[in-house]
Amino acid sequence: MITPIKALRKNRFKTALIFISMSVSIAAIFLISAISGGVVSMYSSMLKTDGDIIVTQKGIADTFFSDINRSAADEIAAINGVREVSALILGAAPVDPLPIVGIYGASKNRFKSYALKQGLYPSSGEVMLGSKIYETLKHPKTISLSKKEFRVSGVFKSRIGFEDGGVVMGLEDAGAVFHKSASIFLLALNDLGKSDAIVAQINKTYPQMEAKTTDGFIDSYNQFKIIKTSSDVIGAMAFLMGILGIVSMMSMVVNDRRAEFGIMRSIGLSSRVIIFKLLGETLIIALLAFAVAYGVSEAVLELIKHADKFQGYINGEITAALAIKVFVVSVVMALFGTLLPAVYAARVDPMSLIQRGGA
Amino acid sequence: MKIEATGLEHFYGHEKVLDGVDLTIDSGSFTAIIGESGSGKTTLLSILSTLLQPTKGITRYDGKRLSELGNIDRFRRHNIGFVFQFHYLISYLTLRENIALGAIDESRIESLLHSLGIAKLSHRYSDEVSGGERQRAAIARALVNAPSVVFADEPTGNLDSKNALGVYKLFREFSHQGTGFVVASHDKKIADYADVIIEMEDGIVKQIHQ
Fold first, then answer.
1. Three-state SS string across A57-83, please?
2. Interface residues on B facing A, Cβ-Cβ cutoff 8 A
3. What interface predicted TM-score (ipTM) does this complex get?
4. Which domain holds residue B55?
């Protein structure tokens, strides 16, 4: 353990470059995964609140484009096994000075899912604001939406960033703003075991609508797939950049240390010993880089979470599962990045030392 | 260990540097290979020490060909030591750590440090000791596994005459204890210490003096 640390200290400039390269790559993987995971998690949580089944317009690419007749909510509520149906309009609009804000029209029975901090739930012509946007807009009495003034009736607190940075209003008012009846229905069931039967019944009764269990909807939701794929692609690029960084720096390190490896060969140390020696050194850097990247990523996510600019919409979290995944990725990155230069180092011919006086 | 070379030839590209060398080296002897630069002594040393495969010819170690020795790294580690012209100590390791680097067991290190007169310097780094002391540490590294034979390529090339003679005396002492030494040098003073002198010229053994 001491020898690799001494070797790293001796080559401290290049060690630092490898460390920085790895830290940046690992932090990039952490951040993109945590942020994309946070977006998916926030939207999923929003839909899962009192939503065992979700009903949207059939064949739409995104819930924002969905338009269903809200009058069907009462009929669906009467289906055996359905405890409650709430209707939502999902929209986004500028709220001066913010260029885009999530606007949620909600049926009255949905209001209870918003924990009021102050004031009252909104009546007609009123809105309630998430605590984050309330602070960002500096405690407004009214807000303007689609050239119409709405009085702020209350402020709620939500752990879901999209809601905490958003505006909630009655379904009728939202319908007038976005020119639609409802975007989605969220069904709470008495018995989850009946969910498949209820889904089938709704799909049969309302051919213009599409019902899915909320878990099934989340699994198949295109936007989530796009976010996840984009995140995976960017993560893979960061991984490759990390490997390339390690390969190029380790190649320079190996070249600088040719004499050292040549001596090792000449005194009978096997190629495998030299390869493991270099892998060990890079693993030490990888462990340090992982720890630093983890700390930096947590700090950056915390800054983003509290940055007014993002209105709480970007709310990433590094879960234990993500940390383990990135740790494995870091180790693999270190091993792959070092393997080629290490194999080259192991083949250094001691003859070059004897015949040419060293490296 | 008895080393036998038969019909050794070696080319670097089209240049023939060894041209049919036959010789035998016995363990416990001090053999000096002398000759001008380009005479082929370093190439011969490299082939005999298993670091280089000859283009043509056979080397045998106690009657076994190289291909019959199994793992060459392992064979080299257990049976062969090497001393370079430059000490080539690893700069981030202390003298003791350098000696221990290839040690199969470390029990000989202390006695080697004492017999080579560098025990008090063992925790220093190579840039903290003199050139002669560095070369003594390099010799200790070559001897740590009690090899049958130590090959040295111009081991005094970087030392003043006083230190050079000290190195030859050390080789002489250790050869009396049973370790064979094969030393390539253009320094004629080595003849005063060697049991066998192999004189090389233009890739051939010109003369062997017993």
1. ECCCCCHHHCCECCCHHHHHHCCCCEE
2. 42-43, 45-46, 51-52, 71, 73-78, 80-82, 84-86, 88, 90-93, 97, 101-102, 141-142, 145, 153
3. 0.84
4. 3-209
